[in-house]
């Protein structure tokens, strides 16, 4: 008998998780067996100064659990942050896929999304130069579907057999376990120079994309070419994109390094705080679709994971949105134990012959067996599908399901051959019938051989500011390499991309400038430049530098207008407590100059005070100069206006003087621009 169709909602997944939650408030302390404990301060001893007795079962249970609390961290993507939410479909994809959650506009599917850095350990900083993970688990009525994405659309390698090599190369060097969470060392750049398929990914890694301002302002890409299959069995090639509704924005490198020291949890805290404040991160899901008849119609191989499909050639179609609206209750049980796998698909979504994807289909599930202690990791609450699951799998570490009956095999007669396979009409998954034939061979298609054309396309697409940042990034990273031979190899390699890029880097790192000619590709893709992204002041964070005797009513009115535009602000002064305005109004101080830093804000609003606090002016001067150096908006009213004049930045781009017009509106517009690259730096 066919089971009743399971209607999946965001609430149904939350309700499923609720049964595993425990509220310990107002409860008596017990052992794991439920026995009430009378003392949790002292172990059982033979006399006050005697030895501890082994019969102290409470001590043994408590210590044993503590000794086994850690599980192996992920080899890559160890440093993560996550949130619950939902995906809402805008328009039906029925013509392309039979996946049920993509059929009816307005359908909401619960999700769990985890963001991560790739290289660093769990204890590393959020703001290192690195690729970021963007993995989403859809709890659909047909089973879990995992879209395991990164914030860059290409990868270092073309074949999964080399995945251990790139990870070994970029991880800390094995002889001294240095450096942590960084590619700025010999083995990584030696790998790059000797595996030139990495060129395109390295261009992205040296760009501003590698230091995102926030997970909320970061794109996600499925990287691989997947396949949509509709009810008629017709296939289409597809790539997936997540597009943040706040735009794509980044830190500057100097700022990113300082944030790593000031607040290594910067991106994690930003995500958590935004959700707690009701500023729910939103992303739109876009798809690029290619008809199978056009598989070979492009000047690149669409199955090559080191290539993009330029949006000018294959338009991006927006089909739905992702909203993250609830933080995890327990980091370990949810964020740390969630297990993603590109092979978790539903009917209507299938694979292609991308050799990197093919390897990942093995690697992910193999990894979870070690990390999560055996084959039953799918029973951990965060990994459990909302729809029922029935099969003949039994036993294993951490088995939770209690199966009734004696039969655990197929075929059988004792239980009427249940559970039995579903037909395609009943929702059974059927693999796309692609004709595959060929000799067994270790080889790579000649269509994967071009490593530099799209690297040059990326370079051509950058603004002058972004190009300079790429040069600076190469100079920093390769400048850390001790081997001059490796430095020279890198310079020679990237001369194949652009001779001006390679020459500038060579001059900065003491290498010989190359003499070869770079790529002659002139094509560009404006969609790749962050200069062309959405610009909004919403959820931006402003530091308000304020002291005793400020102009109360005017300042409060400005702060109210900033809030109305969705801007967040924190007050910063010399001391904690209240600051009082000249008219008696008061504001609570959120931070002192000691407890915060200009690098963790998007803009600075300097108000000042009565002018009788030299310590405030000294600290405020450093604070504003640092923000100005990082091209951030600077606003000033009241006593702060004189500060602009004294420090000779009045009139510079992104500097808003409250005496020159409606301050709040101008400042909000300046904040929305994110950075003001064309300003003249102070002495």
Biggest β-sheet, characterized?
10 strands, antiparallel
Number of DSSP strand runs:
18
Which CATH C-level class of the largest domain is it? Answer: Mainly Beta
Q: Nearest-angstrom radius of gyration?
A: 28 Å
Low-confidence stretches: none
Mean pLDDT: 94
Helix content: 25-40%
Number of helices: 17
What structural class results from the helix and strand content?
A: alpha/beta
CATH topology of the largest domain: Catalase HpII,  Chain A, domain 1
Q: Give the overall shape.
A: globular
What separation lies between the terminal Cα atoms? 79 Å
Regarding quaternary structure, what we see is single chain
Q: What would your notes on this structure say?
A:
The mean pLDDT is 94. The chain has three domains: 80-379, Catalase HpII,  Chain A, domain 1 (Beta Barrel); 452-531, Hemocyanin, N-terminal domain (Up-down Bundle); 535-672, Rossmann fold, CATH 3.40.50.880. The longest helix has 17 residues, at 355-371. A hairpin with a 5-residue loop joins β13 and β14. The strands form three sheets. Strands 1, 2, 3, 4, 5, 6, 7, 8, 9 and 10 form a ten-stranded antiparallel β-sheet that branches. A six-stranded parallel β-sheet has the order 15-12-11-16-17-18, with helices on both faces. The chain has helices spanning 10-18, 57-67, 163-170, 186-194, 199-205, 253-262, 266-276, 331-336, 355-371, 453-461, 464-479, 484-494, 499-509, 552-564, 614-629, 640-646, 663-672, and strands at residues 80-89, 108-117, 132-140, 143-150, 220-221, 226-229, 235-244, 282-291, 317-326, 349-350, 541-546, 568-573, 577-580, 586-589, 591-592, 603-608, 634-636, 655-657. The chain is built from 17 helices and 18 strands. The termini are far apart.
């Amino acid at each position: 008998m066919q089971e009743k169709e399971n209607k999946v909602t965001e609430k149904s997944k939350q309700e499923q998780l609720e049964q595993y939650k425990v509220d310990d408030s107002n409860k008596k302390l017990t052992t794991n067996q439920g026995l009430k404990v009378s003392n949790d301060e002292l172990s059982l001893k033979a006399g006050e100064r005697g030895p501890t007795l082994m019969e102290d079962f409470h001590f043994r249970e408590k210590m044993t659990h503590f000794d086994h609390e850690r599980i192996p961290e992920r080899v890559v993507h160890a440093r993560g942050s996550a949130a619950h939410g939902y995906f809402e479909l805008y328009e039906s994809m029925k013509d392309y896929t039979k996946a049920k959650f993509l059929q009816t506009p307005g359908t909401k599917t619960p999700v769990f999304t985890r963001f991560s850095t790739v290289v660093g350990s769990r204890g590393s900083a959020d703001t290192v130069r690195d690729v970021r993970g963007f993995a989403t688990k859809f709890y659909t009525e047909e089973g879990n579907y995992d879209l395991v994405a990164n914030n860059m659309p290409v990868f270092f390698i073309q074949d999964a057999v080399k995945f251990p090599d790139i990870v070994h190369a970029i991880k800390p060097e094995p002889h001294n376990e240095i450096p942590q969470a960084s590619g700025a060392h010999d083995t990584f750049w030696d790998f790059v120079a000797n595996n030139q398929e990495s060129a395109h990914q390295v261009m992205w890694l040296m760009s501003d994309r590698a230091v995102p301002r926030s997970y909320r302002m970061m794109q996600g890409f499925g990287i691989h070419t997947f396949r949509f299959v509709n009810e008629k069995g017709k296939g289409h090639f597809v790539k997936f994109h997540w597009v943040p509704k706040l735009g794509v924005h980044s830190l500057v490198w100097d700022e990113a390094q300082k944030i790593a020291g000031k607040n290594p949890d910067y991106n994690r805290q930003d995500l958590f705080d935004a959700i707690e404040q009701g500023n729910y991160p939103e992303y739109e899901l876009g798809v690029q679709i290619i008809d199978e008849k056009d598989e070979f119609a492009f000047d690149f191989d669409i199955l090559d994971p080191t290539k993009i499909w330029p949006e000018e050639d294959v338009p991006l179609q927006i089909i739905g949105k992702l909203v993250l609206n609830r933080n995890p209750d327990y980091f370990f049980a949810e964020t740390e134990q969630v297990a993603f796998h590109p092979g978790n698909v539903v009917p209507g979504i299938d694979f292609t012959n991308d050799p990197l994807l093919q390897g990942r289909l093995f690697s992910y599930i193999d990894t979870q067996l070690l990390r999560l202690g055996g084959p039953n990791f799918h029973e951990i609450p965060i990994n459990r599908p909302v729809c029922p699951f029935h099969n003949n799998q039994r036993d294993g570490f951490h088995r939770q399901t209690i199966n009734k009956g004696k039969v655990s095999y197929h075929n059988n007669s004792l239980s009427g051959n249940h559970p039995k396979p579903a037909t395609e009409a009943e929702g059974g998954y059927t693999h796309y019938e692609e004709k595959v034939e060929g000799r067994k061979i270790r080889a790579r298609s000649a269509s994967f051989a071009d490593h530099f054309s799209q690297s040059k396309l990326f370079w051509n697409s950058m603004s002058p500011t972004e190009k300079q940042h790429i040069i600076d990034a190469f100079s920093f990273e390769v400048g850390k390499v001790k081997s001059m031979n490796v430095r020279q190899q890198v310079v020679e390699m990237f001369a194949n991309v652009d001779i001006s890029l390679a020459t500038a880097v060579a001059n900065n790192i003491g290498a010989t400038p190359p003499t070869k000619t770079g790529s002659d590709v002139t094509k560009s893709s404006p969609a790749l430049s962050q200069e062309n992204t959405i610009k909004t002041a919403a959820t931006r964070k402003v530091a308000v530098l304020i002291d005793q005797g400020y102009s109360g009513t005017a300042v409060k009115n400005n702060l109210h207008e900033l809030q109305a535009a969705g801007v967040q602000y924190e007050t910063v002064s010399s001391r904690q407590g209240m600051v009082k305005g000249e008219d008696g109004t008061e504001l609570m101080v959120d931070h002192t100059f000691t407890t915060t830093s200009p690098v963790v804000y998007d803009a600075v609003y300097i108000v000042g005070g009565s002018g009788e606090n030299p310590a405030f002016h000294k600290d405020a001067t450093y604070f504003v100069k640092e923000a100005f150096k990082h091209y951030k908006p600077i606003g000033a009213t009241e006593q702060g206006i004189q500060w602009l004049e004294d420090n000779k930045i009045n009139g510079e781009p992104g500097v808003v003087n409250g005496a020159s017009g409606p301050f709040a509106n101008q400042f909000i517009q300046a904040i929305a621009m994110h950075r003001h690259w064309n300003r003249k730096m102070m002495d």
